[in-house]
Amino acid sequence: MRIVSLLPSATEIACVLGLEESLVGISHECDYPPSVKTKPALIRPRVDPTAAPEEIDRQVRELIARGESIYSVDADLLLELDPDIILTQDLCHVCAASPDDLATALVRAPRMPQVLSLNPHTLADVWNDVYTVGRATGREQCAGDVVKELEERVARVASRTRQQNGGRPRVVCLEWLSPLYVGGHWVPEMVEIAGGRDVLGRAGEPSFRVSWEQVIAAQPDVVFVMPCGYNREKAADEFGRLPLPNDWANLPAAREGRVFSLDANSHFSRPGPRLADGVEILAHFLGATGTSSGDCRGASAA
Length: 302
Description:
- The protein is α/β, with parallel strands linked by helices.
- The protein has 2 domains: 3-144, 3-Layer(aba) Sandwich (Rossmann fold), CATH 3.40.50; 166-300, 3-Layer(aba) Sandwich (Rossmann fold).
- The chain contains 12 helices and 13 strands.
- It has helices at 8-16, 53-65, 75-81, 103-107, 123-136, 140-162, 187-193, 212-218, 232-241, 252-255, 264-267, 275-286; strands at 3-5, 23-25, 43-45, 71-73, 85-89, 114-118, 170-177, 180-182, 197-198, 208-209, 222-225, 259-261, 299-300.
- The strands form 3 sheets. Strands 7, 8, 9, 10, 11, 12 and 13 form a 7-stranded mixed sheet that branches. Strands 2-1-5-6 form a 4-stranded parallel sheet, covered by helices on one side. It has a two-stranded antiparallel sheet with strand order 3-4.
Protein backbone atom coordinates (compact mmCIF):
# COMPACT_ATOMS: atom_id res chain seq x y z
CA MET A 1 0.00 0.00 0.00
CA ARG A 2 1.25 3.45 -0.98
CA ILE A 3 0.07 6.35 1.19
CA VAL A 4 0.44 10.09 0.67
CA SER A 5 -0.31 12.32 3.64
CA LEU A 6 -0.94 15.99 3.04
CA LEU A 7 -1.21 17.05 6.68
CA PRO A 8 1.02 16.48 9.70
CA SER A 9 -1.67 15.03 11.98
CA ALA A 10 -2.56 12.36 9.40
CA THR A 11 1.13 11.51 9.09
CA GLU A 12 1.31 11.05 12.86
CA ILE A 13 -1.81 8.86 12.78
CA ALA A 14 -0.36 6.70 10.00
CA CYS A 15 2.90 6.26 11.90
CA VAL A 16 1.26 5.37 15.20
CA LEU A 17 -0.61 2.67 13.27
CA GLY A 18 2.68 1.23 12.03
CA LEU A 19 2.33 2.56 8.48
CA GLU A 20 5.48 4.69 8.22
CA GLU A 21 7.03 2.38 5.64
CA SER A 22 3.91 2.75 3.50
CA LEU A 23 4.18 6.56 3.44
CA VAL A 24 5.62 7.57 0.07
CA GLY A 25 4.94 11.30 0.26
CA ILE A 26 4.16 13.97 2.87
CA SER A 27 3.52 17.69 3.24
CA HIS A 28 6.20 20.30 3.87
CA GLU A 29 5.11 20.52 7.54
CA CYS A 30 5.21 16.82 8.40
CA ASP A 31 8.01 16.47 10.95
CA TYR A 32 6.90 13.85 13.48
CA PRO A 33 8.15 11.31 14.04
CA PRO A 34 11.42 12.91 12.88
CA SER A 35 12.19 9.97 10.59
CA VAL A 36 9.38 10.99 8.20
CA LYS A 37 11.34 14.06 7.16
CA THR A 38 13.26 11.88 4.70
CA LYS A 39 10.05 11.38 2.67
CA PRO A 40 9.47 13.56 -0.41
CA ALA A 41 7.25 16.61 0.21
CA LEU A 42 4.44 17.29 -2.26
CA ILE A 43 3.12 20.50 -0.72
CA ARG A 44 4.63 23.98 -0.62
CA PRO A 45 3.08 27.04 1.01
CA ARG A 46 2.41 30.14 -1.07
CA VAL A 47 2.98 32.33 1.97
CA ASP A 48 6.25 32.98 3.76
CA PRO A 49 6.18 30.87 6.97
CA THR A 50 9.15 32.80 8.34
CA ALA A 51 7.38 36.17 8.17
CA ALA A 52 5.99 38.02 11.17
CA PRO A 53 2.50 36.93 12.26
CA GLU A 54 0.79 40.05 10.90
CA GLU A 55 2.51 39.58 7.52
CA ILE A 56 1.47 35.91 7.34
CA ASP A 57 -2.09 36.99 8.12
CA ARG A 58 -1.96 39.63 5.37
CA GLN A 59 -0.64 37.17 2.78
CA VAL A 60 -3.27 34.57 3.67
CA ARG A 61 -6.10 37.09 3.46
CA GLU A 62 -4.83 38.37 0.13
CA LEU A 63 -4.74 34.89 -1.40
CA ILE A 64 -8.20 34.04 -0.06
CA ALA A 65 -9.62 37.33 -1.36
CA ARG A 66 -8.33 36.45 -4.85
CA GLY A 67 -9.84 32.98 -4.61
CA GLU A 68 -6.42 31.37 -4.75
CA SER A 69 -5.10 28.40 -2.80
CA ILE A 70 -2.63 28.93 0.05
CA TYR A 71 -0.76 25.79 -1.01
CA SER A 72 0.69 24.43 -4.21
CA VAL A 73 0.68 20.71 -4.93
CA ASP A 74 3.53 19.15 -6.89
CA ALA A 75 1.30 17.41 -9.43
CA ASP A 76 4.14 15.71 -11.28
CA LEU A 77 5.53 14.19 -8.09
CA LEU A 78 2.07 13.09 -7.00
CA LEU A 79 1.57 11.26 -10.29
CA GLU A 80 5.03 9.69 -9.99
CA LEU A 81 4.32 8.42 -6.47
CA ASP A 82 1.04 6.86 -7.66
CA PRO A 83 -0.56 6.51 -4.19
CA ASP A 84 -3.35 4.11 -3.29
CA ILE A 85 -4.59 6.43 -0.52
CA ILE A 86 -4.28 10.20 0.00
CA LEU A 87 -4.88 11.58 3.49
CA THR A 88 -6.03 15.20 3.51
CA GLN A 89 -8.48 17.51 5.31
CA ASP A 90 -11.23 20.00 4.66
CA LEU A 91 -11.34 21.63 8.10
CA CYS A 92 -8.98 24.58 7.73
CA HIS A 93 -7.64 25.75 4.38
CA VAL A 94 -5.08 27.89 6.19
CA CYS A 95 -3.59 24.94 8.08
CA ALA A 96 -3.12 22.36 5.34
CA ALA A 97 -3.96 21.38 1.80
CA SER A 98 -7.57 20.44 1.07
CA PRO A 99 -9.20 18.14 -1.52
CA ASP A 100 -9.65 21.18 -3.77
CA ASP A 101 -5.88 21.58 -3.92
CA LEU A 102 -5.63 18.09 -5.41
CA ALA A 103 -8.19 18.55 -8.17
CA THR A 104 -5.87 19.44 -11.06
CA ALA A 105 -3.35 16.71 -10.28
CA LEU A 106 -5.94 14.00 -9.80
CA VAL A 107 -7.56 14.76 -13.16
CA ARG A 108 -4.30 13.64 -14.77
CA ALA A 109 -3.94 10.49 -12.65
CA PRO A 110 -4.14 7.21 -14.61
CA ARG A 111 -6.06 5.71 -11.68
CA MET A 112 -7.99 7.45 -8.96
CA PRO A 113 -6.60 6.92 -5.44
CA GLN A 114 -8.86 6.77 -2.41
CA VAL A 115 -9.00 10.22 -0.81
CA LEU A 116 -9.68 10.30 2.93
CA SER A 117 -10.63 13.77 4.14
CA LEU A 118 -10.32 14.17 7.91
CA ASN A 119 -12.44 16.93 9.44
CA PRO A 120 -12.32 16.72 13.25
CA HIS A 121 -13.90 19.32 15.55
CA THR A 122 -13.61 17.53 18.91
CA LEU A 123 -11.32 15.03 20.63
CA ALA A 124 -13.82 12.27 19.86
CA ASP A 125 -13.62 13.23 16.17
CA VAL A 126 -9.81 13.01 16.31
CA TRP A 127 -9.94 9.54 17.85
CA ASN A 128 -12.51 8.55 15.21
CA ASP A 129 -10.06 9.68 12.51
CA VAL A 130 -7.59 7.14 13.90
CA TYR A 131 -10.28 4.48 13.34
CA THR A 132 -10.98 5.84 9.84
CA VAL A 133 -7.35 5.56 8.78
CA GLY A 134 -7.10 2.16 10.46
CA ARG A 135 -10.11 0.78 8.60
CA ALA A 136 -8.89 2.12 5.25
CA THR A 137 -5.43 0.58 5.69
CA GLY A 138 -6.26 -2.76 7.28
CA ARG A 139 -5.06 -1.65 10.73
CA GLU A 140 -8.43 -1.52 12.47
CA GLN A 141 -7.35 -3.63 15.46
CA CYS A 142 -4.27 -1.49 15.98
CA ALA A 143 -6.41 1.63 15.71
CA GLY A 144 -8.69 0.30 18.42
CA ASP A 145 -5.75 -0.29 20.73
CA VAL A 146 -4.35 3.18 20.08
CA VAL A 147 -7.68 4.91 20.69
CA LYS A 148 -8.27 2.93 23.87
CA GLU A 149 -4.93 4.06 25.29
CA LEU A 150 -5.55 7.71 24.31
CA GLU A 151 -9.03 7.71 25.82
CA GLU A 152 -7.75 6.14 29.03
CA ARG A 153 -5.03 8.77 29.40
CA VAL A 154 -7.49 11.61 28.92
CA ALA A 155 -9.99 9.95 31.27
CA ARG A 156 -7.36 9.72 34.01
CA VAL A 157 -6.76 13.47 33.77
CA ALA A 158 -10.51 14.16 33.84
CA SER A 159 -10.89 11.97 36.93
CA ARG A 160 -8.16 13.87 38.76
CA THR A 161 -9.50 17.32 37.89
CA ARG A 162 -13.04 16.40 38.99
CA GLN A 163 -11.63 15.73 42.45
CA GLN A 164 -9.86 19.08 42.75
CA ASN A 165 -10.99 21.46 45.45
CA GLY A 166 -11.86 25.05 44.61
CA GLY A 167 -13.14 26.64 41.44
CA ARG A 168 -11.76 26.15 37.98
CA PRO A 169 -9.26 28.81 36.84
CA ARG A 170 -10.38 31.11 34.06
CA VAL A 171 -8.29 30.38 30.95
CA VAL A 172 -7.58 32.18 27.68
CA CYS A 173 -5.80 30.32 24.87
CA LEU A 174 -4.18 32.59 22.28
CA GLU A 175 -3.99 30.69 18.98
CA TRP A 176 -2.59 33.63 16.99
CA LEU A 177 -1.02 36.86 18.16
CA SER A 178 -1.25 39.47 15.42
CA PRO A 179 -4.18 39.74 15.03
CA LEU A 180 -5.37 37.98 18.18
CA TYR A 181 -7.28 34.70 17.80
CA VAL A 182 -8.43 32.34 20.54
CA GLY A 183 -8.29 28.56 20.17
CA GLY A 184 -11.36 26.66 19.06
CA HIS A 185 -12.45 23.15 18.11
CA TRP A 186 -10.86 20.69 20.58
CA VAL A 187 -8.81 23.27 22.55
CA PRO A 188 -11.60 24.52 24.90
CA GLU A 189 -12.53 20.86 25.49
CA MET A 190 -8.92 20.08 26.41
CA VAL A 191 -8.90 22.99 28.87
CA GLU A 192 -12.11 21.73 30.50
CA ILE A 193 -10.76 18.20 30.88
CA ALA A 194 -7.51 19.59 32.32
CA GLY A 195 -9.35 21.46 35.06
CA GLY A 196 -9.82 24.94 33.63
CA ARG A 197 -12.61 26.99 32.07
CA ASP A 198 -11.94 28.52 28.68
CA VAL A 199 -13.67 31.89 29.00
CA LEU A 200 -13.41 32.94 25.34
CA GLY A 201 -13.04 29.84 23.15
CA ARG A 202 -16.03 27.84 21.92
CA ALA A 203 -15.73 24.07 22.08
CA GLY A 204 -16.27 22.34 18.75
CA GLU A 205 -16.29 25.63 16.81
CA PRO A 206 -13.52 27.34 14.81
CA SER A 207 -11.05 29.74 16.38
CA PHE A 208 -12.01 33.39 16.00
CA ARG A 209 -10.56 36.85 16.24
CA VAL A 210 -10.76 38.79 19.51
CA SER A 211 -9.59 42.17 20.76
CA TRP A 212 -7.27 42.97 23.62
CA GLU A 213 -10.30 44.55 25.30
CA GLN A 214 -12.07 41.18 25.26
CA VAL A 215 -9.03 39.44 26.72
CA ILE A 216 -8.76 42.04 29.49
CA ALA A 217 -12.49 41.87 30.21
CA ALA A 218 -12.29 38.06 30.53
CA GLN A 219 -9.90 38.47 33.50
CA PRO A 220 -8.11 35.14 32.93
CA ASP A 221 -6.26 33.45 35.78
CA VAL A 222 -4.11 31.62 33.21
CA VAL A 223 -3.11 32.56 29.67
CA PHE A 224 -1.71 29.94 27.30
CA VAL A 225 0.23 31.32 24.34
CA MET A 226 -0.11 28.67 21.63
CA PRO A 227 0.10 30.18 18.13
CA CYS A 228 -0.90 27.65 15.49
CA GLY A 229 2.15 25.91 14.03
CA TYR A 230 4.64 27.42 16.50
CA ASN A 231 6.86 25.58 18.93
CA ARG A 232 7.28 26.75 22.53
CA GLU A 233 10.38 28.87 21.94
CA LYS A 234 8.94 30.67 18.90
CA ALA A 235 5.66 31.28 20.74
CA ALA A 236 7.52 32.88 23.66
CA ASP A 237 9.63 34.98 21.30
CA GLU A 238 6.63 36.27 19.34
CA PHE A 239 4.70 37.03 22.52
CA GLY A 240 7.69 38.91 23.90
CA ARG A 241 7.57 41.22 20.87
CA LEU A 242 3.91 42.15 21.33
CA PRO A 243 2.98 45.65 22.48
CA LEU A 244 0.75 44.70 25.42
CA PRO A 245 -2.13 46.93 26.55
CA ASN A 246 -1.73 49.04 29.68
CA ASP A 247 -4.19 46.90 31.65
CA TRP A 248 -2.27 43.70 30.95
CA ALA A 249 -0.20 43.92 34.12
CA ASN A 250 -3.38 43.98 36.22
CA LEU A 251 -4.70 40.67 34.90
CA PRO A 252 -4.70 37.85 37.46
CA ALA A 253 -2.63 35.72 35.06
CA ALA A 254 0.03 38.42 34.68
CA ARG A 255 0.14 39.29 38.37
CA GLU A 256 0.60 35.64 39.36
CA GLY A 257 3.08 34.82 36.60
CA ARG A 258 0.71 32.31 35.00
CA VAL A 259 1.26 33.18 31.34
CA PHE A 260 2.83 30.21 29.57
CA SER A 261 4.05 29.58 26.05
CA LEU A 262 3.34 26.08 24.78
CA ASP A 263 4.39 23.89 21.86
CA ALA A 264 1.21 24.24 19.82
CA ASN A 265 2.80 22.58 16.83
CA SER A 266 3.21 19.33 18.74
CA HIS A 267 0.37 19.23 21.25
CA PHE A 268 -2.51 21.58 20.35
CA SER A 269 -2.74 22.67 16.70
CA ARG A 270 -2.56 19.24 15.12
CA PRO A 271 -5.59 16.95 15.55
CA GLY A 272 -3.60 13.78 16.14
CA PRO A 273 -2.56 11.36 18.90
CA ARG A 274 -0.38 13.91 20.72
CA LEU A 275 -3.46 15.89 21.78
CA ALA A 276 -3.50 13.47 24.73
CA ASP A 277 -0.08 14.85 25.66
CA GLY A 278 -1.58 18.31 25.36
CA VAL A 279 -4.32 17.52 27.87
CA GLU A 280 -1.72 16.29 30.34
CA ILE A 281 0.42 19.38 29.79
CA LEU A 282 -2.53 21.71 30.41
CA ALA A 283 -3.40 19.80 33.57
CA HIS A 284 0.18 20.25 34.77
CA PHE A 285 -0.01 24.02 34.43
CA LEU A 286 -3.55 24.24 35.78
CA GLY A 287 -2.55 22.47 38.96
CA ALA A 288 -3.71 18.88 38.47
CA THR A 289 -1.24 16.38 39.90
CA GLY A 290 0.01 13.11 38.54
CA THR A 291 0.57 13.98 34.90
CA SER A 292 2.25 10.97 33.40
CA SER A 293 3.64 11.88 29.99
CA GLY A 294 4.29 14.68 27.56
CA ASP A 295 6.75 17.53 27.79
CA CYS A 296 5.52 19.58 30.74
CA ARG A 297 8.20 22.24 30.48
CA GLY A 298 6.74 25.71 29.94
CA ALA A 299 8.15 29.15 29.40
CA SER A 300 6.68 32.10 31.24
CA ALA A 301 5.82 34.51 28.44
CA ALA A 302 5.25 37.61 30.55
